[in-house]
Amino acid sequence: MPTPVIPHTKLQYCNWDEFDPAFADTFRNEAVHLHISTVNWPEFPLKPDVHARLAHNGSGIYCLFDVEEPHLRVAALSDNGPVWEDSCVELFVATPDGKHYCNIEVNAAATALAARRESREKFKHFSAAEMAEIKRCSTVPHMQHDEKPANGNIKWSLLLYIPFELIGFMGCPDSIRINLYKCGDKTETPHFLSWNPIATPAPDFHRPEFFKEISLDKSYA
After folding, report:
1. How much is the pTM?
2. Has residue 191 got a pLDDT over 90?
3. For residue 149, which of 86, 75, 70, 87 has the smallest C-alpha distance?
4. What value, to the nearest 5°, has the Cα angle with vertex 195 and ends 72 and 48?
């Protein structure tokens, strides 16, 4: 399978206070599609339908997640709280020095956690000012949720924007090393999906050795 390329987009999202379905429809047609569908640990077989679409504007990266799952859980409403326990999507990006990475985790109601890390144990959370630079909006209202339809699944979408400078890049890089995830540690059925496979005996997203390099289109420059 050829290595995907993150395309350049001239689209600009203006009102981050609400989710714009028209923008999302246009963005889906421009962005590269990555299916977050790898079940790495058979003891957690639930496989929600999760799609990520990425594009960059030269200054940062947009990521649109489309999720369909049987249980919508949102408990964390303050940034840098335990969002991974909720219905959660995540983008991990290696920093330019090759020794660190940033984890950006966002629950369905757009509450985020972000940190710079050497490992799971060694990290520093983003400051409040840095968190404000991570733009996000969702189709799910920013309130607590515990929804389990009797029949069918719940669908939700979330748009995320991260400036390259926050990750440590001075300008637009030629490529980045990433992985993307969907989890829900305290949903009715815990699950741990990844885009690029992870070869560990137990669920562990904090493994940059399993990130995958992906190029960025710079033909516009």
Report:
1. 0.97
2. yes
3. 70
4. 25
